[in-house]
Amino acid sequence: MTQLDPKQQAFRNAMAHMTAAVNVITSNGPAGRCGITATAVCSVTDSPPSLMVCVNRNSALNPVFKRNGRLCVNVLCGEHEEVARHFAGMTGVEMEQRFSLHPWREGQDALPVLDGALASLQGRITEVQEIGTHSVMLVQLDEICVREHGDSLVYFSRGFHRLQRAVQAA
User: Fold this and answer.
1) Per-residue confidence (pLDDT) for residue 14, from 0 to 100
2) What's the whole-model pTM score?
3) Dist. CA 92–CA 116, nearest whole Å
């Protein structure tokens, strides 16, 4: 492991204080089926509906996403911490087994879509920019499914946390 310079360490510490939704990014196609836990996802525009997804260039899955050219962003709900841990590689479970431990369905072009996700956003990678250690993938969305109820899973201070939806007074 390489030593971080003070600015890199300060940046990482600052980012640890930035609460982010936890997602499992999945793909399927000629390069195979895969998934990875990620928080580096954000909206770009609603015309056309597009997202930005960042994947480390050193990840073995980076070229799989690029070659497949399609992906699904599965926004995890509070009960999906175990799913996040599996796809982050924290549990030692092999890739194909990760898909057998929780209910998945096939979306467009056989993209893996997690049943019960707060949202699933399926689309095509339309552009990739290499910036530092990461590939920044712009994804134009073809299919959007949203679940109206459920808590969110977020990453804050280097750990997973369940963010409960506020109860509305009647």
Assistant:
1) 87
2) 0.92
3) 24
